[in-house]
Amino acid sequence: MIHPTAIVSPKAELDPDIELGPYSVIGDKVTIGKHTWIGPHVVIEGPTEIGQNCKIFQFASIGEIPQDLKFKGEESRLVIGSGNVIREFVTINRGTAPGGGKTVLGNDNFLMVYSHVAHDCKIGNRVIIANAVALAGHIEIEDCAVIGGIVGVHQFVRIGRYSIIGACSAVSRDVPPYTMAAGNHAVLHGLNTVGLKRHNFSDEAIHNIKKAYQIIFRSNLLLKAALKKAEAEIAGSPEVMNMITFIRESERGVIR
Description:
Helix content: 10-25%
Oligomer: single chain
CATH superfamily of the largest domain: Hexapeptide repeat proteins
Structural class: alpha/beta
Number of helices: 4
Shape: elongated
CATH class of the largest domain: Mainly Beta
Number of strands: 27
Largest sheet: 10 strands, mixed
Radius of gyration: 20 Å
CATH topology of the largest domain: UDP N-Acetylglucosamine Acyltransferase, domain 1
């Protein structure tokens, strides 16, 4: 199922069950798993690993060198899991040595038209990245986050699980799990309650997250004291502990 006009390096490893469209180019050290579909005019450079059942649409550029002036041609990789949908004109770059040498996408992510994933980003599973989102280097996005269209995210920012970022936002600090953020620069706008319900969070879990949010972000306590209070009053909630741990580990600080 490889179109005769496609160009495939003899150093690439393609599963026999893939489909490769016209005029696509597969470079050295590219590995692609079974049942992955690659449309026309796609360029994939290596070292890049792509899992099973992915769909990569026309004019995507996958695994090119980083847009980083410090990059000197050192060995680096891009690792993409299974079940990902990568739409037209998406660009995903390999890692750099200072960032660990690897850019990673998990499973079942949806990257829409013109979105960009820079070097050393770590994206979890079931993440939705809408049109024209620009992720700078070293960004971490946890599972099931949603990023609206035309959003810019500063390098080294972390975006917590089940959070949602509104369109046309500029994100310069960490976004806590389960929250909604929007604006330039982005600020919190409460919890992503609709998203939590869609992902079948229990009423008790949502209640605990709401209580923690009120203590951490709506009380007059200093952040350190608010985290301690939330931890003491809502002990035993894994969702609340995840939020508290995320905030405590933040290096850039969280949006408020």
